[in-house]
Design brief:
This protein has about 300 residues and is α/β, with parallel strands linked by helices. It has one domain: 3-Layer(aba) Sandwich (Rossmann fold). It contains 11 helices and 8 strands. It has an 8-stranded mixed sheet with strand order 1-2-4-3-5-6-7-8, with helices on both faces. β1 and β2 form a beta hairpin.
Amino acid sequence: MRKFIIRLFIVILVLSGSIGYVFVNRATSAESCTITSLTAQVGNGTLSYSQVGNGRSILLLHGLFASKEQWNTIMCQLAEVGYRAIAPDLPGYGNSNGFTLRDYALENQARLLHELMEKLGIKSFDLAGSSMGGAIAHLYAQRYPNQVRSLAFIGSPLGIVDWANSVKQAIFQGINPFIPITTEQFALELSLLFFTPPTIPDSVIAEKVNDYITRNRHYQQVWDIINLYDDILCEGVPTQLPTFIIWGKEDKIYNISGANRLPECIAGAIVIQLPKAGHLLLMENALEVASKYVGFLQTLRTP
């Protein structure tokens, strides 16, 4: 029943937001959960972020071509058990605007997020990321280790294992499944991102495909930048933070084999392999993921 409700929310909320990696999930499991949308001047742009709850802060980072709303269900779960959850639209994504192409470099993303947390006066927090957001979280933790209490990868992260064969096969056929320019390519993207793809109205699909066509050059430029970070999690100073990893066994973006390699680069990491789960765990498996993540957080000693 829970999975049916989550899937229903995904479909309903996609109607008002972006599709594919940009899926918007406004589902909340707590009826009293009210997520506030705020903005802050960061660098030369305006960064939009969501916030809910009181208590120790947790910063949540979305993936490529995505938006902060993907975290809504998990944010409400975290708030319900006493945390303050903050999820930004990363610089250049979602409702964050005024940023340049150079700002898409992951090091610059980390720097701009650090500026956000400084402006919010948050000196210590837990940090979690999904897909590309996981790589940014890792870079942030390397650069500002005194700020970060723990690190988490919610779903497979960019930067530890190559694209899965399903992605490579599409690219070899001249299709970038993350920048779909036909309805068939859009359906392919859904099949790669979800274990059980939701049904999306034709009108919404048409709108999103048109956006990918109209701004195709921009999407391709960002894609090229992100592909410079294919082994970033094993480079630089090893992370010495308590680290939580949850990876879908049926992930078609990054194969589950990467879950075995990640602890080699991040010693002592706790790894959970989630059965019957795909890439977007933060949406399709939000309640189960939130429960397991909270369990990890509660094992940490409070400073």
